[in-house]
Amino acid sequence: YFKAFTKQFTTGENYQAGADRELQTVRQMMIDFLQNHSQEVRPPACPPLDPVWSSDITSLFDKNSHHYTAIVFESNGSYVGREVILDLIQYENIVVRRALNSDKAFLEKLGVPSVPSCYLIQPNGSHGLISNLKPLRSFFSSYLKSLPGVRKKLLLPLQLPAQENKEEGTEIKVWKEFDKTKLYMADLESGLHFLLRVELATHKTLEGAELKTFKDFVTISAKV
């Protein structure tokens, strides 16, 4: 793990995700890394992941804004809110926050019967619980992305200044847009390298069905 804005040379910090090697375990560890970044060196693209309190939420109801505000109510140990916040980073016209269910009276006042639940404040000021949604990250994120006016942010082409040339002057080089319809040799080489040097290396021996699968894969790779 490499912290943002590290000024001194570092080879990074190694972390073990646990014996289970589950994707969810690794994802939660990465979320913890982001949240634990100190405010001074937090990456600018990273939204706040800390929970907001009832006093902060109440103030949102009084204002008309140009965007939606979604609040994921959850228990203290839940990661659903933070996952939804990160899912919606690339979308505009919506802000996602998370709140804990420790204030029972406040949840009762808003009509939040259980957690995790998603509460939506619309641009015109109307607000209410999103009903008929399964209490899962995928359902919350899909619903919020489908709201009218919520769309992916436009990413402008990255412009890098060319090296100065006193005779020809300076000019701006615009990066070529990535063509999703093409297959790049660099990706093929990277994929093969990872499969052979990393994934295969986790097996001390191959035999039986695993060995046959690997032989078949090598045969197909050689043919294509």
From TrEMBL:
<dbReference type="InterPro" id="IPR042568">
    <property type="entry name" value="QSOX_FAD-bd_sf"/>
</dbReference>
<dbReference type="GO" id="GO:0003756">
    <property type="term" value="F:protein disulfide isomerase activity"/>
</dbReference>
<dbReference type="GO" id="GO:0000139">
    <property type="term" value="C:Golgi membrane"/>
</dbReference>
<dbReference type="InterPro" id="IPR040986">
    <property type="entry name" value="QSOX_FAD-bd_dom"/>
</dbReference>
<dbReference type="GO" id="GO:0005615">
    <property type="term" value="C:extracellular space"/>
</dbReference>
<dbReference type="InterPro" id="IPR039798">
    <property type="entry name" value="Sulfhydryl_oxidase"/>
</dbReference>
<feature type="domain" description="Sulfhydryl oxidase flavin adenine dinucleotide (FAD) binding">
    <location>
        <begin position="179"/>
        <end position="223"/>
    </location>
</feature>
<dbReference type="GO" id="GO:0006457">
    <property type="term" value="P:protein folding"/>
</dbReference>
<dbReference type="Pfam" id="PF18108">
    <property type="entry name" value="QSOX_Trx1"/>
</dbReference>
<feature type="domain" description="Sulfhydryl oxidase Trx-like">
    <location>
        <begin position="43"/>
        <end position="150"/>
    </location>
</feature>
<dbReference type="InterPro" id="IPR041269">
    <property type="entry name" value="QSOX_Trx1"/>
</dbReference>
<protein>
    <submittedName>
        <fullName>QSOX2 oxidase</fullName>
    </submittedName>
</protein>
<dbReference type="GO" id="GO:0016971">
    <property type="term" value="F:flavin-dependent sulfhydryl oxidase activity"/>
</dbReference>
<dbReference type="Pfam" id="PF18371">
    <property type="entry name" value="FAD_SOX"/>
</dbReference>
